[in-house]
Amino acid sequence: xxxxxxxxxxxxxxxxxxxxxxxxxxxxxxxxxxxxxxxxxxxxxxxxxxxxxxxxxxxxxxxxxxxxxxxxxxxxxxxxxxxxxxxxxxxxxxxxxxxxxxxxxxxxxxxxxxxxxxxxxxxxxxxxxxxxxxxxxxxxxxxxxxxxxxxxxxxxxxxxxxxxxxxxxxxxxxxxxxxxxxxxxxxxxxxxxxxxxxxxxxxxxxxxxxxxxxxxxxxxxxxxxxxxxxxxxxxxxxxxxxxxxxxxxxxxxxxxxx
Length: 258
Hints:
Structural class: mainly alpha
Helix content: 55-70%
Strand content: under 5%
Largest sheet: none
Number of strands: 0
Oligomer: single chain
Low-confidence stretches: 6-23
Number of helices: 13
């Protein structure tokens, strides 16, 4: 999974020469366009993001790519990260993981946690770069130490699986807990798994159920399914067939929407 920098644009409401959508003043479009065309990297990034998200103007990935590139070439780290994402996802351009890795690396080396996490993912999967679990672990750690809940969870998974480092359940739990505390559903789910299986913490079905519920309430299908089984078996919660069926149905519907 790859992420983009989604920084609010606030008053930067404009797009190249595109006609503004209802509610966006033509003067704002023109003003931002003028700044971007004059070489203002912040304005270029803002235009790219607006085209990317379809905010204020019609969505246009090719235009988003063009503006991200202009800002990225000036060293804008958020634009470099988003340009990497466009290549990784094949948005507005042919999918190219090597090019994605190139732009992620530029931003990652300047400390962007989103780029660091995404670059780590490429190393973990061997996409665009030679697979290197040790490098993946290092980049996930850099992002995790900056507070990225996504990277914290991925770092926890690597310790839980012994990938890129010696297997260490206690270390895995530490990172899952940091991720879960920020409300990241996958971190909550994985922390629940550790409590269910007694890995790195004493086995505690009630605590497992607590974390599965937090993730399930965010729509995380795997946690919905696990919570259903807990109710079916009376693990950590009172046995309740109706509640079990409810969560199983919710899990099925969540998967069908993916």
